[in-house]
Each structure stands twice: as C-alpha cells, then as structure tokens.
Design a protein that fits this description.
By secondary structure, the protein is mainly alpha-helical. The chain has one domain. The chain has 23 helices and 2 strands. The protein has a two-stranded antiparallel sheet. α9 packs antiparallel against α11, α11 packs across α13 and α19 packs across α20. The longest helix is centred in the last third of the chain and has 30 residues.
Amino acid sequence: MRKLYPFSVHFIRFLALIFTGLLFLAGFLFTCYADDMTTQKVLTRPDNPLLHLLGMGLFAVILFAVCRMTKRHGAKLKTPLLVLTMGWILAAGGLLVLFGRTAPAADAWSVYAAAKSLAAGDTSVIHPTESYLSYYPQQIGLLAFFEPLIRLFNLLPVDLEAYHFIKCVYVLLTCVIVWFQYRTVHLLWKNDSADCIYLILAGTNLPFIMYSSFVYGEIPSFAALSAGLYYFLRMLSDESSRESALFGGNRKNILLSLIFFTLSVMLRKNSLVLIIAIVLVSALEGLFRQKKALLLYAVVCVLLSVSILPCVQKVYEFRAGNTLRTGVPAMSYFAMGMQESSRGNGWYNGYNFNTYQENDMDTASAVQASRDYIAERSAYFRAHPDYAASFYFYKFLSQWADGTYASRQATLATLGERHPLLQELYDGRYSPFYIGFCNIYQSMLYLGCFLCFLQQLLRIEQRSLCFYLGMIGVFGGFLFHMIWEANARYIFLYSLLLIPYAAAGLSALCGWFSSTFFPAETRRNKSDRTQDASQTPPTVQ
C-alpha cells in the first residue's frame, strides 16, 4: 500500500489532466446541438475559434472582476453572493414552473402516472407483464419518491396536476445542490476566490436551471449525492476519523453520507457509477491509513446501494400482492449503445424494449439475442476500424460537446401553451443564443478543470485520493456511457461534478493573471494577510 496508494494518486491526477484536456479541445472545436425539436437529431458543427475565444474572454473578465472584489473584501462577499445565487435560481426556476408549462413525458410520465395510481390506491401498476414497471423495475425507487409528494399535494384544495408541485420541490433541491457543493468547494480548497467563482458558475449554469422542471430522477438523486459527498469528504478530512474512524465523534458524517448515497441510488440507479468510485476510494484510504473501519464503511456502502431497490420493490410487491419481473436486461442497453439511431450514435432507438418484448419478456432469451448482436457488431467494427473510430468519436461528441446537455429536449413536452418568450428559446430565434452561451460556458468549465489538474501536477505538495473522488466518478461515467446507451442528458450530472474543480482552476488562473499584471497589489494583499495572521491568537488544539 505504501507504493500502490501514491501510484493511484499520480495515475488519476495524470489521467484527469489528459481527459479534461481532451474535453476542452472537443468543447472548444465542436458544438453538438439539436435545432429540430421534432426529430431531435443531434448535429455536429465546428466552432469559430475567434468568436469562441471572444465569448470565453468576456466570461473570464467577469470571473476576474469577482476575484478582485473577493481579494478586496474577503469573506464578506461570499454570503451576499450565495444569497444572490440561490435567489436567482429560485426565481428562474419559479418562472419556469409558471410560464414554461413543462410536463413529464415518455419514461418520466410513465413513472409519474404509476405513482399517481398508487397514491389513489390503485396497485394494478405492480404487475409482472402488464405495466411499465414490468419492463423497468429499477424505476420503483423514483416512484416511491413521487408517491408521498403526490399524496401530500392531493390534500390541498387545488385542481392541478401534482407534477407542478414536484417541480417546485425540484427548484428547492437545486438550491440544496448549490449549498452542499459550495461547502464542498470550501472544504477542499479553503479559498474565498474559488468559493465565489463556484457560485458564479452555479448561477450561470442554464441547463441546471432548465432541469429543475424535468420531473425525473436527475435533480433529486444529485441533491442526495452532493450531500453525501460533502459528509463523506468531511468524514475523511475530520481529525477525529484518524482517532476513532467510524465509531467516534465522526458518526454523524458516516451516517448521513451512507443515507444520502443510498437515497441517490434509489432515485437513479446510474448513481452506482459514483458509488463505485466512493467504494474504491474508501477501500484504498482504509488500506493506506490502516483503518479497518474505512474498509467496513466501503462494505456497508456496497450492501446498502445494491439492496435498496430490491427492498423497495419487495415492499410494493407485498402491498400489491403481486410481483414484478427483472425487466429489460442490461445487455440490451450495451447492444443498443453500438447501434446508429435517428438522434445520434448509440442513442435510444427502442432496441432494448423491442428485444425484450419480442422474446416474450424472457430475460435469458433477450440476453442471448443481445449478446449475438454485440458479437456481430463487434466483428463489423473489427473489419471496419475507420467506421468504428468515427462511430465512437461522434458518440463521444454528441454527449460531451453538447453545452445544453439536451436540456431543451428533456423539458420540451408541455401541458398547454408555453410562454412565447420561452418557446422562442426552445425552437425559435433565441435558441441559437442559448446554445451559444451554453457552449461557451462548457468550454470555460472544461478549461477550469484542466487548469485545476495542471496546477496539481506542477505543485509540490500531494493531495489525497479523496480530492479526486468526483473526477474518478466522471471518468467512470465516461467509460460507462461510451458502451451504454448514449444521451447528453446523462452527462449533465457529471458536468455538475466538474464545477468544483473548474472553480479551483479558474481561481488559480485569475490569481496568476492578477500577480502578472497587478504585482504591487498582489504583494500588498499578501502582506495584509500575513499581518492579519500574525495578529490572530493561536488556536487551542
């Protein structure tokens, strides 16, 4: 472990630098978007480097101004900026609820409708063959989240669909995400400039605001993940963990992190990608620190994560007096990820559902059919390597070079007419501005992450493995969705994991710019901080 642990840190740091550099090049040189909301076909176009640099420059000027204000006013700026950011997110999310008229559709509607039926006492949706859950039983956790919210809303004397209330809850959860990520940024770097830049990045993340109206598992699951990550990192950084690990004063962090991680998997099964990263980091930290309790934490985290959905399913099956099948097998998703689609390479085309249905909902037969297709497609890729490289290149771009993260497509469906201004944002004259701004934002996000890991590579002091936890999850998501079903919406949550790193990297960039072009002021600020530190009484340990 004396060799394996530092090797792991160096490896993931170098890998993070290379990966974020490739992301920046992809985002800077290309833009993926959909201009036809009927077909939703993902188009790829090369960017104009000069215009792109101009937009990034304007964004950087704003961030630099915030950094200069932070250096002048210190921590006094953070609280007003936090209130302003959350107030803006609440206001923008509320306006989308009122005027966006977004309604759940496709899978989101199926889960919502099933929860609505259960809230009304109809348990027929728990059926082995004749319900949506018989195909996708993994959605049972999100249904369990929707049902009490619908029951609560039904107590009100309001003649509206309950999903309007759920969207209001989601708007509040976006603020929960900002709060815990903001605290995580401070926990990792203890840098006022990074804290403030994070708030700017969170407040200008338009897809993040748009997704607050998407009645599905993304927002609540990431709210749970962001809370769990914060308490997990506090657990590892808390001095008490060195003394008592799981069973001392650190119990609160342990318990809360496990609860939130488990809840995130219940709400969205793909959260297991990040759970794997958490388990790996816990295990390596436990072995390196020689703390058996951290190994126990990893084991408990695995057990809770893999058992939560089966347990929720058993509860509903007992309640309905019926059963659900195992549903569409994962192998069908891998097969679909190797196919062309009308929207993009590897995107949903109905293969997984159709294969399961055509095989009379027999899992073994559907798995074998999918394996046969994978073998056939793999042979074709080997025989045509140029085609295979092009296929996966555009599959990668369609997910990671879409600055909107398919936020317009995900929130397209409406009940009633959308406000004309917002309709123009979806498929009218304002849509190019939305796409362009999101593209510039994404390039700044990737650039900030690259600079963060470049700085870590050049600095002498070492970071622990837990510092790279979010990046390990991002890289796991990249690998997973390169072989799984593709969708820019799936990448949206990984982009949120990148924001804390981008805040640190852009803060370092602003610091370098300030020391280069304003050296006298920088020396004066350092002198003031040194003087303040010397006047601070020592802390009793």
